[in-house]
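Bit of a strange request maybe. I'm writing a small parser for structure token strings and I need a real example to test against, not something I typed by hand. Could someone generate the tokens for this chain?
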Amino acid sequence: MTAFSQISRIAYEGPQSENPLAFRWYNADEVIEGKTMRDHLRFTVCYWHTFRGTGSDPFGGGTMQRPWDDGSDSVANAQKRARVAFEFCEKLGAPYYAFHDRDVAPEGKTLSETNANFDAVADVLLQEQQRTGIKLLWGTANMFSHPRFMHGAATTCNVEVYAYAAAQVKKALEVTHRLGGENYVFWGGREGYQNLFNTDMKRELDHLAAFFHMAVAYAEEIGFKGQFLIEPKPKEPTKHQYDSDAAACLNFLRAYDLLPYFKLNIETNHATLAGHTMMHELEYAGMQGALGSIDANTGDLLLGWDTDQFPTDYYLTTQVMLVLLKYGLAPGGVNFDAKVRRESFEPMDLFYAHIGGMDAFARGLKIAAALRKDRALEKFVEQRYANWNSDLGAKIEAGQMNFQQLEQFIMGKGEAAPNGSGRQELIENVINRYIDKV
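Reply from user aminoacidic:
Good idea to test on real output. This should exercise your parser:
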């Protein structure tokens, strides 16, 4: 079916364009630092918000107008929705999509029926991938919506729910592999606790690690070569989630010998909830070789929850792209885990939202590349740490000094060298200047 017959493929028209259905900054074939924008950004449309979001919130029901969707849980409706999703991605020019298993196919009365539904919709997804060339960035399993997962999935106190979760991930891995998915994501939506009085944290973390090891083993068994990813988030829906931020995730992975198999999928809104900036979380993961992919969104700082808004702030996207250019991103991508506002209910708003997000990241890429080309920020860093290039600094970094030797050095000098200015305000002015001129 054709759901967007009035929409042509979104084209690049340049910064002077006033056409709301055109890109001003995202020119997919433009080469920056030796790669096209398409290959740098690897834009991905998320199935759950874009095609399953209803606009509901805790204070009211759904508002979205989706004329292609009859509202049923039938397989036929799910297959029709899949075809519409690919029409949207194709006209937008997004090279990837991503899904949870329950986004694309309805749950049946039994796990066998659920798996059959998933296969039937996967048939259509595969057909559409072959027709359009659009690829699956990653798949994952929704193990947080159904009441059976009220106590968690891989950290549940109910061993039979744990077994169900394992079976669900097994199937999601099989379908992701069949569709050529380049990654597989775990988000522990209920892998955490509400109350430590009734929680055996050590046992739950042991169970979670065993679950991940089984997933790694099964991926090897079926020949899935994709990257495993964990997506940090500190809270919501639990009081505390075990994957609370990048540091907690990497500590867990090291403790359970899982680090060789996993990287992180970092989300802006989750970083905010953890009390960090997106740049912090990306840098922390990147410097340890664990940056795998990102969920591109933003939160409203006046609201204390995960609002998943589309990113339009050039300052934010510049920060993100500075880190991504430094460490790289593939086989991950820039996934728009973002939803149109409840009040933006018409199908056309899906295009406006994604175009704005793609343009924001494209301009952030250009600004970051210009800063890197001129070494505008590196100069400040080099100057700030310049005295570490001394003989003393070299010996400390080489592990050739001890406390007694350092005491002797400073006793001989009498006082440390004076500090230099951090120049924070000047640096912010420099970034603003590049935002203005690019």
